[in-house]
Design a protein that fits this description.
By secondary structure, this protein is mostly helical. It has one domain: Non-ribosomal Peptide Synthetase Peptidyl Carrier Protein, Chain A (Orthogonal Bundle). The protein has four helices and two strands. The chain has a two-stranded antiparallel sheet. Helix 2 packs across helix 3 (76-108). The two termini are 48 Å apart.
Length: 132
């Protein structure tokens, strides 16, 4: 089998296409959540904490050789924002999975309907054929 044909069969499998769609939707969802955190939640948190801009929070590591020079700057405010992004995305995914599991349980718990007259007749015919 040619490599091109083999790749086409692999790429056209349903689970690969579903996964690609999931990655694309997940990326878009991540951008929405990042915007929500940066543009909505963090300003509110900043206002509550006294107008602190979390994106500019950093710790300046002084240079031990020169007292007036900064050796490095650790931007921990961006990390806090990214952690908040992660927590919100994880919570949203948790809720989606919880809703899907509840729907599956309802579907699994649905009572079976009694067989119709046609189904009953077919079952009787099947049983008679098994006896012969």
């Amino acid at each position: 089998m040619g490599m091109a044909k083999e790749f086409k069969e692999f790429a056209m499998k349903g689970n690969v296409v579903d996964m690609a769609i999931g990655v694309i939707i997940g990326t878009a969802f991540g951008k929405i959540v990042s915007s929500l955190v940066a543009d909505l939640f963090m300003p509110i948190v900043g206002a509550i904490t006294g107008k602190v801009d979390f994106s500019k929070l950093a710790y300046d590591v002084p240079n031990p050789l020169k007292t007036d020079e900064v050796m490095a700057s650790i931007a921990y405010g961006k990390t806090l924002t990214t952690i908040l992004d992660f927590v919100i995305i994880a919570f949203c995914l948790f809720m989606v999975i919880k809703i899907m599991n509840a729907a599956k349980k309802k579907e699994a718990a649905a009572p079976e309907l009694p067989p119709t007259k046609d189904q009953q007749l077919l079952m009787e015919i099947r049983d008679l054929l098994k006896q012969k």
